[in-house]
Amino acid sequence: MLNLKPNHKAIRHYYQEIEHLRQSGIAHEGATAPIFASLLRHCAGQFPHLQLIEQYPLPRPKRRPLRVDGAIVDRFMLRLGVWEAKDNADDLPAEIIKKFAAGYPKDNILFQSPER
Questions:
Q1: What is the pLDDT of residues 83-93, one digit of tens each?
Q2: Cβ(51)–Cβ(98) under 8 Å?
Q3: What is the tens place of the pLDDT at every residue in 6-59?
Q4: Using an 8 Å Cβ cutoff, are 40 and 11 in contact?
Q5: Distance between CA 84 and CA 99 in Å, rounded?
Q6: How far is residue 84 CA from its own chain's centroid?
Q7: How far is 102 from 66, CA to CA, in rounded Å?
Q8: Alpha helix segments (H runs only) across 1-116
Q9: Is the dihedral angle over the CA atoms 33, 37, 38, 39 positive or is it negative?
């Protein structure tokens, strides 16, 4: 079972880094996604057979693969879940609809925004 509580070092670090960016006036996805990836990597690291792979390609029939921000995979490269980062300026519900229309999986997916 995942061991992660609001007062754990990894969570505190995530919020400190996001706050640092916010104070610097930086809130775009390219700056915030690596911070969340670090948190996901910490979580996956609690299980020896799991890992986070960033910029994970999702194949689609007769189309170019999609590239999600990350995927948690096991040692056999079986995808257990995917992560898609958004920034605070995005209309998250509208972005989710667009991603599903493009072929993103509808199960085991996390749409993440720093303030949500």
A1: 999 988 899 99
A2: no
A3: 999 999 999 999 999 999 999 889 999 999 999 999 999 999 999 999 999 999
A4: no
A5: 9
A6: 5
A7: 8
A8: 9-23, 29-44, 92-102
A9: positive
